[in-house]
Design goal:
Elements (H helix, E strand, L loop, with lengths): L14 H22 L5 H38 L1 H21 L1
Helix pairs in contact: 1-2, 2-3
């Protein structure tokens, strides 16, 4: 019996949405600065934009790494279901005893 969890994480909670929201915050700060009469230097503006782009790329890499890891674990779990379950059970017992001693 196989279970599939397609919508485990909502689309609204994605890292990409977070980065887009941060871009909106930066734009809002820029508008606030302009309304206050202070101008933001082009160099600073470009630096903020480039950092946000790097953050976005880093989030994509983290997301892809998480997907790749999940697929690898899924492959191992499907190939060795009973061994994987036994191993997870053993780790749970060991962690339980370790935490109980504290």
């Amino acid at each position: 019996m196989e279970l599939y969890y397609k919508d485990l994480i909502s689309e609204e909670a994605s890292l990409e949405k977070l980065v887009d929201d941060l871009m909106l915050v930066v734009q809002g700060v820029d508008e606030l600065v302009q309304a206050a009469g202070v101008t933001l230097e082009k160099e600073k503006k470009d630096e903020i934009t480039s950092r946000l782009q790097r953050l976005k790329e880093g989030c994509r890499k983290i997301e892809q790494h998480a997907v790749d890891s999940a697929l690898a674990v899924d492959k191992v779990m499907r190939q060795y279901p009973y061994s994987s379950a036994g191993f997870a059970f053993a780790i749970g017992i060991i962690l339980g005893r370790f935490l109980k001693k504290r």
